[in-house]
Amino acid sequence: MLTEFNLLEEAEELWSFLDQAAVCIHLVGADGTIHFANLKELDTLGYSAAEYIGHNITEFHVDQEVIQDLLTRLTNGETLLSYVARLRKKDNSILYVSINSNVYKKENNFIHTRCFTTEINELAWQCLKNTIGNG
User: Fold this and answer.
1) What's the burial of 108, exposed, middle or buried (CB within 10 Å: 0-12/13-18/19+)?
2) Which pTM was predicted?
3) Cβ pair 84, 129 in contact under 8 A
């Protein structure tokens, strides 16, 4: 039987798992606001939590048509695998990424995305873009 202590301990373990994961993870609300980003994501992009969390995800995407398509697909209930994008790092350099994402819904309401982002090189980005075509 789970006690209150066990639940708190399990919640702490889950939080540590998400925040300390070796892959970039972020959650974005239906309006595009970033609700959570783990330490790996913040470190990879070079932003502090205050500079990233609470901002709109579109601010960090190089190609606005790509992020709009991504958000539209997620809103429509699609699960995205190997969706390629380019993100702008704090130092203004470009990060080529592959995104796996879907939406957490509660009572059929969009609560937030569940995004897992992997850094790829420009050649891999081009190949995936041409092969998958993000759609």
Assistant:
1) exposed
2) 0.86
3) yes
Are the C-beta atoms of residues 115 and 38 closer than 8 Å to each other?
Answer: no
Length of the chain: 135
Q: What is the pLDDT of residues 79-130, one digit of tens each?
A: 999 999 999 999 999 999 999 999 999 999 999 999 999 999 888 888 877 7
**Using an 8 Å Cβ cutoff, are 45 and 59 in contact?**
no
What is d(CA 61, CA 87) in angstroms, rounded to the nearest whole number?
5
- Show contacts of 99-102: CB within 8 Å, 24+ apart: 99/70, 101/70, 101/74, 102/74, 102/78
* Of the candidates 39, 21, 34, the residue with the CA atom closest to the CA atom of residue 67: 34
- Give the strands of the sheet with 34-37, arranged side by side: 34-37, 24-28, 109-119, 94-106, 80-88
